[in-house]
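Quick one: structure tokens for this chain, please?
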Amino acid sequence: MVRRLRGLSPGYTILELLFTIAIAGTLAAIAVPQGLRTLDDFRTRSAARYLAQRLGDARLSAIKRSTALGLRFEPSLPDYRITTVVDGNRNGVRTADIVAGVDRTLTEPEMLAANFTGVTFGIVEGVPDADGQPAGGTDGVRVGVARLLT
């Protein structure tokens, strides 16, 4: 037989509940921004690995085909479209040949933001690009005078 003490209920007081909710709210306020920052870092690293893999795939495909292959970066604000292009006339991958249809594209144009939400590709303004020139806001990807990486 269970005995109950008179005047006491088997529950929590409002003060105990408010204290518990305050602790849970404080922990959530600390954890959520850190979790979002971690998610952004993960997406950025994943996008960088994906782009490195695309470069590696282009290199291996060029070796297999015994011809030049390249990645073309086309500005498409606020990001760049990335396309794999194959040399069609054995003189290297050139923008003029791509426009003329001699060098053909192997893949559809793709933006990093399509696979990695919130990630855009470019160079932060003021940071020098590959040939030492300061990058402008509209010219984030440039190797020499071209936007082709072969």
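The mean pLDDT is 81.
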